[in-house]
Amino acid sequence: MLRTLVIVAAALLVFLIIKNRLDGRRLQRKKPGPASTEKMVKCLQCETYIPRKEAIISGTEIFCCKQHQRDWEKSHQH
Ligand SMILES: [Zn+2]
Predict the structure, then answer these.
(1) Which end of the chain is more exposed for a tag (fewer CB within 10 A), N or C?
(2) Within this chain, do residues 24 and 51 fall inside the same structural domain, yes or no?
(3) Same domain, 67 and 39
(4) For residue 34, how far is its CA from the centre of ligand 1 (angstroms)?
(5) Is the pTM of this model over 0.70?
(6) Residue 50: is its pLDDT beyond 90?
(7) HEC string of the chain?
(8) What is the domain range of residue 59?
């Protein structure tokens, strides 16, 4: 009887340790990254820096807005 109790207690302890580790990892991943680490890109037309996720990217060309994409393409047509 005592032996069973010890095994159950040990299993519970291991379970709690694993659970704590998983929770800790989840908390670390949850941390929001500071805005300064956000990748900035430069508009080809006006050379303004904008967050990459807000940029309009067509191939290797990057623009801050649709208008500048159009302007740049107009002035770089052959
Ligand atoms: Zn622009």
Answers:
(1) C
(2) no
(3) yes
(4) 25
(5) no
(6) yes
(7) CHHHHHHHHHHHHHHHHHHHHHHHHHHHHHCCCCHHHCCEEECCCCCCEEEHHHCEEECCEEECCHHHHHHHHHHCCC
(8) 35-75
